[in-house]
Amino acid sequence: MGNPWGASTPRETDMLAPLDEQFRYHTWATLRVIDHCLELPPEALDHTIPGTMGTIHDTIAHLVGSDAWYLTLMTGDDSVGIREAKRLSLRELRSRFVENSEVWQRILAHLDDYDPTLPEDDDSPEVLHARNLLLAQALHHGDDHRTHVWSILGAKGLEVPEADVWMYWWSTY
Question: pLDDT at residue 4 above 60?
Fold first, then answer.
């Protein structure tokens, strides 16, 4: 698959190189999950197990849709959001994730330009200077739900390809 962000090497001298690398991994691993699931029989996308958030398809839709929502909160740009992600096919979700990964790349290249405030809602107070919160949440959330998909596959006796950071590094560098 190569490096999904297109760069040949990480930003070694950049103070943001570790964060940039984490988002590279987030993109690579999420695309690896989606690409693997695109090869499954359609009925396998309806598999679920206790302890996960839903079916394979719904979990991937949630992961991709939430990632887009974090981008909307970060940028204030509603056009990066995904309405009703569950209605999209895996191919459509993959396409949107690739597009939004490019938005993350642009954000990371100009990180000091972003200082979002999360508005108060029924579940949480207003959060000033939420940039780092959104970055951490995007990475954590993606990892959490990729693991759900792998757990479902393993519990159903299906192949679970490696998608950890070691495999990412060996596959891309």
Answer: no
